[in-house]
From TrEMBL:
PANTHER family: AMINOPEPTIDASE YDR415C-RELATED, METALLOPEPTIDASE M28 FAMILY MEMBER. This is Peptidase M28 domain-containing protein. Belongs to the peptidase M28 family. M28E subfamily. One of its GO terms (molecular function) is metal ion binding. It comes from Diploscapter pachys. InterPro entries: M28_fam, PA_dom_sf, Peptidase_M28.
Amino acid sequence: MTRWLPLLLLTAATTASADPRAPILSAARIKADVKTLSADDFHGRGPTQPGEAITLAFLEKRFAALGLRPAGDAGYRQTVPLLRWTRETARFDLSLGGKTEALRPGVEIAASSRIVGTTTLDRAGVVFVGYGVVEPRLGYDPYRGVDVRGKVVVALAGDPDVEAGRDLGFGGRASSPAARTKLAEAQKHGAAAFFQIHDTFPSSYPWLQLANSDAVPGYALDTGSVPPAFGIRGTLRNDIGVALLRQGGLDYAAAKRAAQRADFRGVALQGVALSADVRTSLDRAVSHNIVGILPGTDPAAGSILYGAHWDAYGENAFDPPADRIRNGAVDNGTGTATLLEIARAFAGAPRLRRSVVFALWTAEEKGLLGATWYADHPALPLATTAAQFNLDPHVVLGRTRDLELIGVGRTPLEQDLARVAAAQGLRIVPEENTEAGWACRASTSARGAIWCAGVPLRASGSGRATMPNAITRPATRSNRAGT
Ligand SMILES: [Zn+2]
């Protein structure tokens, strides 16, 4: 249960002149709140679903009991307007060598379209573009000399060197920013649809996770206009992708090796065609962040921000009835409960010089939407927000001695973290699964986009410094002695 202590003590250390007493946290209270938040009567805390009202009421009551100053547009609630795309129907037929079979959505294919109405593919040709990454600096352009207009583009997961075993210029095993532009490249070159072939290692999540979320509505912030939509996009189960390449005369492993080279060019897969009908509707929806402030003693001193997303995946009508509720105890019941406990500790301690903002985000699982909205509508100016601490989620492990730091080199707070960790006997170790791109996935602010573009952040107090998630690893055989 030491996982949250480094974060909290770091705060105490950085504000030591104003507050010599470190707040005391209670594991028992955190546990009780996790239990409450993940109970079935919270319906899995799905934004815009019945679980939202119940969750918000619980969180508001707790903020009020702590005496936090409401900092939303309606009490503690900060309205987050959303666009919601719902897939009404979907049909996919894959032809391999003249034989046509249906691909079952949520089983063999996970796909959607944000074009309102019906999007149709009628025996569209398929082009394999390797990793689908265009990087002129390194000479990579799989689209060179290949016509994908009106066709289906199929790409490998990851980037050219995530599995190559050496750094080809894309950051080695780390997931590169270039890999996040695949869809845009397919769109730019006039493709009608884009699919990635699922592969667990470079994707860093299993197929089932993706398949289970198929047909869950897609969301975006409603900023007054509907963004232009690409055609059908999605992911193919690995064996489907492998079969499709084989029909086109390509061996999956050999195709990967070929696509790791800068001279790789896209290949039109002979004898492969895809037909599809996807009907999508769009409506507007509203969700809410919960934001409260513990005012500091010096209004000119700025603030620090604690954030955690309250949302989970809610109820999923596509699962069998016995398993409809995805309770989200760990992700992110733990972070939400810990934020409540940190707020309780601060509220009971002498006031800091800086104000402390406590924010519980909505729609993190829909693409960091609540946090992004906050970054554009902050309760206190970002320019004087010295640090953000993100709680999402706590890895359920035993006692640890390693503290794994994600997104190394992006904030000067690392030096404080190293000092506090050392005082607790924790060892900071390099990020292990860099291909997972956690620094981008877990940054709860729009500033995360700056990280993901690979730009290091500089000064604290610039409003851009955010704290990377730190996760702890279980003590290994070699370091367990003495714990
Ligand atoms: Zn989470």
